[in-house]
Design goal:
Elements lengths: L1 H32 L12 H28 L5 H9 L10 H11 L6
Length: 114
């Protein structure tokens, strides 16, 4: 019974961290959708990278904690963070800008975009 209780506590903690991650990502996406570049690192702009760095670091830290719990629970790695990381980096010159990409992410996450 003790193992089941421990696993339940781990799963509850995992769910809490995933909710924290979702909230942090949505907040960052809303800022980006408002016109602030840097979250997706599409441009080699040091200032934009520096402004986004604390957000990226916080998301990375949350994702590492989530993945650790998921590993202990025998679950797949945290797919949302992997998708987010895959969406970052240089893109073709005709690719949508970061604000437009952020709005698409918000819609994908079920957040009403105004």
């Amino acid at each position: 019974m003790a193992k089941a209780d421990r696993l339940e506590r781990l799963d509850v903690r995992r769910a809490e961290l995933e909710a924290d991650y979702d909230a942090a990502l949505i907040a960052a996406l809303q800022v980006t959708a408002g016109g602030v570049w840097g979250l997706f690192d599409h441009k080699p702009d040091r200032q934009a990278r520096a402004k986004a760095a604390p957000v990226i670091a916080a998301l990375d830290e949350l994702a590492a904690d989530i993945d650790s719990l998921r590993d202990q629970l025998g679950l797949e790695p945290f797919a949302l963070h992997q998708s987010f990381l895959a969406a970052r980096g240089p893109v073709a010159s005709d690719a949508p800008g970061e604000p437009k990409q952020a709005r698409a992410w918000l819609e994908k996450l079920g957040v009403v975009v105004s």
